[in-house]
Specification:
By secondary structure, the chain is α+β, with helices and mostly antiparallel strands. It has 3 domains: 142 residues, ATPase, nucleotide binding domain (Nucleotidyltransferase, domain 5, 2-Layer Sandwich), CATH 3.30.420; 106 residues, Nucleotidyltransferase, domain 5; 160 residues, Nucleotidyltransferase, domain 5 (2-Layer Sandwich), CATH 3.30.420.40. Helices cover 41% and strands 20% of the residues. It is built from 17 helices and 21 strands. The chain has a 7-stranded mixed β-sheet, with helices on both faces. Strands 3-2-1-5-12-11 form a 6-stranded mixed β-sheet.
């Protein structure tokens, strides 16, 4: 008799599998990275075959780590980052590498869409074209790879591709569909107006099903690949952000989330959409009638990783010798630096800005006093400033958060928790478990009736490990620095746009 639920996250950097019991305890888990390819400046691609291979490995590892028998699995649910796309031909073969949501190749297509179809797209989708959305990727493929476009018979998001491979069922959910920029979230249907205007065949888009619907069962081939039993119910699933909201207990209007991951997000649950043409996204929430108002920063924890790789190479040896992570070493020296890093300000636009892909990162205010410990703290503070700017964009639309949950890999840093709390000047809650795969597993339990409803699932499974209150003195210092942070970025933006026009040699 089954008693465990599997949640799978097809993430930006790897595959995570979590297996939970019926009260939210993690029984087994595993993670495996996969490569991202950057064949040209601004491009980000992955091979779907890498996703499948990693899933095979992580599923078996998670089952082994929890000493779980295949007959004990009740349901499987899958989530992934939105916007990324996989193209299939008439034989369901992958036509080209998947274009990842971090890809920036479509600046030209975005400008074209804004100029010629901006009003139509915003009216239909509540969003404006930007380089993170699927529609510009499809337009790019049609223009730059016409032979591929001609063969394209199906378009899937990462979780939908993996689920298709496990069940043979072709579908997506409304929340992931929002990320395509071809979906009308009010009507909950594909926009025939956009498809007709841009020549996107409606038939290449998948059917829309509710996230908690059982879409099919695990096929014999898939079961053999994963080391599971044939016939296990497989759930439609949804985006990593929606799954994180569920797993963190953000299910009521006013509940906020700050996510410190590859990218950084500030999201608030609302009872109506708060669309903004360029700066704020209005996603559907898992709970019908509610929305997930979101904006953020394109480069978040990845900036700390870049700093580690570029300037703290020696700490990798300490990591091997002493078993303490390089990030923990960086935190320990950054914690000794005064609040505000003595005026060293970092702008985390290493992958372009959230609202302007031409922006770049920088350090401003460097003096002889600034050792690399200062740079480490400055990176954490600069990302926090960027996230506060994201909240300001939401508040300008009337969005208010009663409290915030800190999630993502970066939220495990006590130093960064404190910096975020003091920069925002608001109370923070840290969930015990914040993986999107955890929320995805809970969703599977809702689908098969293990939990009565979403609130019951949250009450039974979601727990919190820490609450933080801001230091008013630190907050005052950060407020003064944040004003300078915004002004400096504003002043540098025109030069970055001009720099983008210079054709510089690449190594």
């Amino acid at each position: 008799m089954g008693k465990y639920l599997i949640g799978i996250d097809i993430g930006s950097g790897g595959c995570k599998v979590v297996i939970i019991d019926q009260v939210g305890n993690i029984i087994g888990r595993a993670f495996q990275e996969w490569p991202t390819y950057y064949p040209y400046p601004g491009w980000s691609e992955q091979e779907p075959s890498d996703w499948e291979n990693a899933l095979k490995s992580t599923m078996r590892s998670a089952m082994t780590s929890g000493e779980i028998k295949p007959c004990e699995i009740e349901a499987i649910a899958i989530g992934s980052a939105t916007h990324s796309i996989v193209l299939l031909d008439e034989k369901n073969q992958v036509l080209r590498p998947a274009i990842l949501w971090t890809d920036k190749r479509t600046i030209e297509q975005v400008d074209y869409l804004r100029e010629n179809y901006g009003d139509l797209i915003f009216e239909e989708t509540l969003h404006a074209p930007n380089v993170n959305w699927s529609l510009p990727y499809l337009v790019w493929v049609r223009e730059k790879e016409p032979a591929i476009w001609k063969k394209t018979k199906r378009v899937l998001m990462p979780k939908d591709y993996i689920r298709f491979r496990l069940t043979g069922v072709y579908a997506t959910d409304p929340i992931d569909a929002v990320g395509t920029l071809i979906f009308n979230p009010r009507k909950r249907e594909w926009s025939t107006k956009i498809c007709d205007a841009l020549g996107i065949p409606l038939e290449i888009l998948p059917p829309i099903l509710s996230p908690e619907k059982i879409v099919g069962t695990l096929s014999l081939d898939a079961a053999d690949m994963l080391g599971l039993e044939e016939g296990i119910p497989v759930i439609v699933g949804t985006t990593d952000q929606a799954s994180e909201a569920l797993g963190a207990g953000a299910i009521d209007p006013g509940h906020g989330i700050i996510k410190l991951a590859t990218a950084g997000n500030v999201a608030v649950v609302t009872d109506s959409p708060h669309p903004d043409p360029l700066q704020v996204y209005a996603y559907l929430h898992i709970i019908p009638g509610q929305w997930y108002t979101l904006t953020g920063t394109t480069s978040c924890a990845v900036c700390y990783r870049w700093l580690r790789d570029a300037f703290f190479e020696d700490l990798k040896k300490l990591e091997q010798d002493e078993g303490k992570s390089a990030y923990a070493w960086m935190d320990s020296i950054a914690a000794k630096v005064p609040v505000g890093s003595e005026g060293l300000i970092f702008h985390p636009n290493l992958h372009g800005g959230f609202t302007d892909p031409r922006l770049r990162g920088n350090f401003v205010g460097i003096t002889f006093r600034h050792s690399r410990a200062y740079f480490a703290r400055s990176v954490l503070e600069g990302i926090a400033f960027s996230m506060l700017g994201a909240l300001e964009r939401e508040e300008a639309l009337g969005v208010r958060a009663d409290n915030f949950r800190l999630i993502g890999g970066g939220s495990r840093s006590s130093l960064w928790q404190r910096i975020i709390c003091d920069v925002f000047g608001k109370e923070m809650i840290v969930p015990t478990i914040d993986d999107s795969s955890f929320g995805t597993a809970i969703l599977g339990g809702i689908a098969i009736g293990v939990f009565k409803d979403i609130k019951d699932a949250v009450n039974r499974c979601v727990r919190y490990q820490k609450e933080l209150t801001p230091d008013e003195g630190n907050h005052k210092t950060y407020q003064a620095l944040f004003a300078r942070y915004k002004e400096i970025e504003q002043n540098l933006a025109p030069n970055y746009r001009k720099l983008h026009e210079i054709k510089l040699p690449m190594r």
